[in-house]
């Protein structure tokens, strides 16, 4: 797209970003010190308030999006009844459009053991900020807020409207959820009122993520008949039936899946193929009884050329063939979560503005990549019908969910500059008189 920012405006934005990096780090540290752990979803109201207060201090109109008890039970069934609170800030410009919406999730996964630094301390060490959520993805929230602030402190007024949201429950996914899914369902993000959406997940500062792989999380139960362990022929061993099923899938279907490669690079590259893994198994009650039930939980990941219907059918075909060929084979199939693969075009003003900003700041063209897991982009693209939605933020995907999670301050600063330049390009700016 044509370059509509004057060189002096670009330089003013870059200089402003340099000057406010310490403020951005301080904001990030404050978020990291709030243990918004999911599951079950603790400290959500506190984290939403912290973000909202900073947005209000920066001049945003702030509202909090909460759930009724019934909505909480339906949308957060694993949340132990804890309150869900999202925060939304709006910074109107002199023109009602375009509208760019920046989004990050404030929930973080549990900590784990053997950290060398307090996981909720926000400690700075050797140029990195440490803490659970530093990369995934409170660092993204800090970057999106201060990218817009860099434009304003450069003495420029954005002509369109900026929205900033911090949402819950991204880590617990769900076909619907109490975070981004709820904002879409309530029309707060919609194709009628939202032009661009940027989700600030970490997939490396030189990449623009255009989509994610699909997923099915489900359970398969084989159903047998109990008998005494001394007379197994009188029973039907559900565990043995399950073992045979797993053996067939891993021996025949799994190798075919590994041949299906994503059309665009996935970060990390080890996730570039379709996959299926059996990750939890439960069967039997005691050693001297033939088990009448065995249940396995599976995780199926789809590349962008696959469909949910075809992925299901592959499993159902194996199960039904076993029903027809193996005496007494019975099963039940259930799904907990399903998300279709998502992919958007690189030939849009949103993507091209970010590509131009990456070229300007880093001196190289961006990589166009696919996320290995699903994320909140699915709600925006599939449910709200907004095609101009990308993933771009600070941090490395390899830092997500690990012990000693951290974010490089240099990456935080670069992402602020890139998001600021792209936003100024998309919304247009005027210098204050």
TrEMBL record:
InterPro entries: ArgE/DapE (IPR010182), Bact_exopeptidase_dim_dom (IPR036264), Peptidase_M20 (IPR002933), Peptidase_M20_dimer (IPR011650), Peptidase_M20A (IPR050072). GO terms for molecular function: hydrolase activity; metal ion binding. It holds the Pfam family M20_dimer. Its cofactor is Co(2+); Zn(2+). Keywords: Cobalt, Hydrolase, Metal-binding, Zinc. It comes from the Bacteria. Residues 211-322 form the Peptidase M20 dimerisation domain. Belongs to the peptidase M20A family. This is Succinyl-diaminopimelate desuccinylase. It comes from Dictyobacter kobayashii.
